[in-house]
TrEMBL record:
Residues 31-50 bind DNA. It comes from the Bacteria. InterPro entries: Homeodomain-like_sf, HTH_TetR, Tet_transcr_reg_TetR-rel_C_sf, TetR_C. GO terms for molecular function: DNA binding. It comes from Actinomadura hallensis. Gene3D superfamilies: Homeodomain-like, Tetracycline Repressor, domain 2. This is TetR family transcriptional regulator. SUPFAM superfamilies: Homeodomain-like, Tetracyclin repressor-like, C-terminal domain. Keywords: DNA-binding, Transcription, Transcription regulation. Residues 8-68 form the HTH tetR-type domain.
Amino acid sequence: MARGRPRTFDRDTALAQATRLFWERGYEATSVGELTAAMKIRPGSLYAAFGDKKSLFKEVVETYGRSPEGAFIGKALDEEPTARAAFTRILHEAAETYADPSHPAGCLTISAATNVTPEDAEIAAYLRDLRNTNLARFKTRLETAQQQGELPPETDPEALARYFAAVLQGMSQQSRDGATKTDLQKIATQALTSVFPPPEPAPN
């Protein structure tokens, strides 16, 4: 015999509302009361379906990471044949995604880390680990590019990986400050040109 009352809300819809709120406000500034109001559920239902606020947030981030808005970096690294093509795609898709008016501006995993207090160091570490995973993937891809002659021997893959990560973080914040897709595309183009100069024209 089933125990407890059946769920009276759509879990995916509630999760989408929580995602939007965390994305807009960040982890620390989002209260359980605001979450339950946005998700249109009672606190007891939140805890029964998702666990506590930290568990809900981690599920939000994991779901976001599988969405088009969160998965584009990994897809570009997996699918593009060269580092130039991969990072060109990453930065220009970031410009499209971060400024898309259909959802909150910027990147959820970047903006949600703002103002996390020492009491929530676990969440800060969780988000930092996700960002560092991308950083490690950037470094690996750039090391491969260097080994294959796409980048000069004097290139520092770790420093370059951190540069691209910093550009993405800056683009995310710029979008939250009102930068348009065109503004962000210009940043992307400038950053890429500084690393991958345009190929020289073929001789006649």
